[in-house]
């Protein structure tokens, strides 16, 4: 495990159920993501992409395998080697297919809460939240509730929240599924920009093949097995 | 950032309606407590206001409030002659229900021992104490009578000369104060025909007796009014109230009078205890039980409301956990909302109660101690009712945010 990598996974395996009902969602999935690298993970529905992403995101417990983030071993099989809740809070940012904003908080508060949970004071958190919203081009909607934002704006706020604590890892699960192609590309370019500017390791699960040129590395996943995609012609 | 406040702001309409609902429920709990307190206060109000040290009543009765007591009117003079007695007054007390202005009028009639007692001790809102031996009345405001209004009771008409406040019987009826003579006239009022029949019956009994045959003048006397026949006893009174002289011991005076074979003596404290243990006891227990049940119901309803509010937020809770919110943040949010509901509900209950309770037919007394006790109960049920929601929230997994 080396700290040159933002993410290292080693033979991640996840099995649901047992006996006749056993389902292998992921088998021996190993990848490395460098700091500042943007990785795409492609594959059909049911291939195990989300299981992989939530395992790397320390949400789904593993059956076996190891996850290291920033060179530090965090998961060793089903056993955590750190306080996962605190680690998630400080080091991992999530963006999902649906924006997943907290409905009773404004755009700014949705970003601010992530900062305050990490120990920032309310004023400092608000300043940083506003600057992130500005960076993502939605500062003018800071007082709006999520229900008053368009899909693209919601997704930008979600990205701002994911970036709030300057995570070393950003995980996105089909973040452009609810967006048109133009908006979808904008979001993908945003991830690349964030990765390159902040040295964040980014994994994006996507079905959208139109913006693959944005990614540094592409992986494919099928039947729970992950492999590096051949370079496009 | 106060998540509880943000969520309340987002669901302000629903939260406000819920708080009003809880408030109405708590108002009933508060009202029950107030009625309970009013019942006790009303029960002992009269004995406390009258201020008698001792009550001399019919032997072996718990009168005159808990049960009927009849003592001869001349008992007053016997009692007044006991060493250590500073003053003795007749006490006549009974409840009548008449029709007045087309509406039923229920009055607890209390006789004042004129001229020693004109009702100066009665708290008056308007008017004056009694100024003459007959046909004047001090009426409690709950009777709905106006100053100067005339009320027909028995064969006489009484003019309301004073309006009193908080002069109620143990059953909550407003008290009308008249002189003892008038109270007896109201109590022993019989129709003219009944009087005539009684006189005829007296004469017939005389004619059948040997004494009547030997002394015909007796039969002529039998046709006279009862009051003018010395052999017929005067109307009885309910009790005699005793004021013990300064320096004299109440126990000694009570022991002296208790030694007589025809009466029993109760101190003021005993009279109050008799009232609370007697007519009031069952109502008191019933109200207490209702209050307890309503408190339990309020807890259950609050728990269900908070549980539903938590269910509505499960996704947000999962999301908060996903971004690393510790359990205490989630717990704090639910607990704060429960406390906000409780505090708001309590406030609404108090404010509404101030408007509504004075219109209740019985007195509702909210004491500071009772209000503080209810506040503590509300605090308790708020915490208790949030437990179900907290339990559900603690079971939420961060990955539920992705579903």
Q: How much helical structure, as a percent, in the residues of chain B?
A: 40-55%
Percent helix among the residues of chain A? Answer: 25-40%
Shape of chain A: globular
Largest interface: A-B, 27 and 21 residues
Q: Mind explaining what this structure looks like?
A:
The complex is a heterodimer of chains A (233) and B (403). The model of chain A has no long low-confidence stretch (mean pLDDT 85). The two termini of chain A are 33 Å apart. Chain A is globular and about 50 Å long. In chain A, the strands form two sheets. In chain A, strands 1, 2, 3, 5, 6 and 7 form a six-stranded antiparallel β-sheet that branches. Chain A is built from six helices and twelve strands. In chain A, β1 (5-16) and β2 form a beta hairpin. In chain A, α3 (107-117) packs across α4, α3 (107-117) packs parallel to α5 and α4 crosses α5 (151-163). Chain A is an alpha/beta fold and 233 residues long. In chain B, strands 1, 2, 3, 4, 5, 6, 7, 8, 9 and 10 form a ten-stranded mixed β-sheet that branches. Chain B has a domain at 3-42 and 281-402. Chain B is of the alpha+beta class and 403 residues long. In chain B, α2 (12-50) crosses α9 and α2 (12-50) runs antiparallel to α10 (281-312). In chain B, a hairpin with a 2-residue loop joins β2 (85-100) and β3. Chain B is built from 13 helices and ten strands. Chain B has helices spanning 3-10, 12-50, 75-80, 180-187, 192-208, 210-214, 216-222, 250-258, 268-277, 281-312, 314-322, 327-356, 368-394, and strands at 54-58, 85-100, 103-112, 124-127, 136-140, 150-153, 156-164, 175-179, 239-244, 263-267. The two termini of chain B are 26 Å apart. The mean pLDDT of chain B is 86. Classes of the chains: A alpha/beta (233), B alpha+beta (403).
